[in-house]
Amino acid sequence: MRKFLLSLVPLVLLAACGDSSAKKPNVILITLDTTRADFVSCYGVHPGVTPNLDALAAEGTRFDMAISTAGVTPVSHASILTGMNNQTHKLRVLSAPSGYTLPEDVPTLATVLARNGYHTAAVHSAFPVSRNFGFQRGFEVFEDMNTEMKHLTNDKGQVKSIWDVRNFQRRSDETTDLVEKSLKGEEPYFLWIHYWDPHDWDKTPPEARLVPREKFFDASGDPIRPGIELYKAELNYQDEQIGRLFKALEAKGLLENTIVVITADHGQGLMEHGWAAHRLLYQEQVHVPLIVKVPGAKQAASVKDLVRTIDVAPTVLDYCGIPAPKPLDGRSLRPLIEGQSDSKRVAFGDQINGYDSNAGMAYRDDRQYDQFLYMVIDWPHKLIYRPMHPERSEIYDLATDADEAKNLYTSDGALAIRLRRELAKASPWVPGPYEKVDGQEQDAAAKAALEKLGYTEGQTVDPSWNWTCPEHMDEKLEGPTSRCSRCKSPPLMIKR
Q1: Which domain holds residue 278?
Q2: Among the residues of 334-393, which ranges form H helices?
Q3: What is the pLDDT of residues 393-412, one digit of tens each?
């Protein structure tokens, strides 16, 4: 029996669980940080950037409209690993008093597979996917560079330097080296690999910065934003390392009978909406690549239906023949992968992690600085609801306005009511925008590390919320579980 073991720490794994266990497919999940779908070349916008991802997509199924639940790494990864929307898994980043880590009773893909005879290992590249957030649960080996943070902090628990934290990560080549050198152990296996490079452009390999001057101008002489070229260089470098990884896995025979899933936690703003970062809920932040390859399956080449990253975990469990735990917000993509029709999905997301939410910025007029954002996509329509400033909420028809340039929120009242009802029905704020998770406290060093990585700014503000009907917004309701007296709708959160 072939062995699969990451020999990173002294560890003895049990023998695989007999012939029935040996027939289970292996699983490789690769999550790409800060990777937009439209910059992965097989999506047809930027050719030549990601040839290795393109090759994998040609052998599997490419999902053309996969949506993440958040624009921040820990929250969105929690959704990928649990199959749950954010309000269900309850992981929030710096959103006091909500939990800083996944609650112990929330099952993950790793915990479920481990209970069913899988050997589990993870190799990660940065702090936001570390054990600090509970992601180590279910893994026999969890290599995250974060066994402890003492070497980053002084005796007061303060991070010594921003450079200490920003260097607390691996480049893609280092991550691939670690996996390639360490593969030895037992099947069936679940391997999760996380690549970080596009998140921090200052980690671009030196040759990527030597871009010829003419590449910053198009044929007409108009300037091309150099940040885009650096971002593409990061993605290209990441793709090269993924190619190396798969060659190594293939050489060791570790791709036989193996499900491969590649997706991203979120995208990246490149000033399309005046914002050069993630964390918001425009398509450049939440539309991510999703590629699935299943051994021996007759697969559709591409799927145009709206899907969610919360569908990853139930899909893997379905192909492994393992019942999915409940409650689960996602559902298996197997029918779509195998070319069948499936019922329509609705995508939800939010941004309440406290970024730019200090008292001085919480009430700014700049629309991207609203500290609470909620999203619902009922294709082709998308609502970004701003409970602190409802009048500045946004609705887009993604089929005709992929760039989200024409806001329909005030011009189509019936559509606004329908989407607000859809959001209220999901109740992402019950019992409140922050749900207290007992026993969850984040130490000063970990909090400071997130701040240095740009995941928070200032002290989180929790405004005094009111509740209204998504249709009759003049009606004041009693609380997050009340109902409208006129239409019986669940409430919509609002700051009056």
Answers
A1: 18-346
A2: 334-337
A3: 999 999 999 999 999 999 99
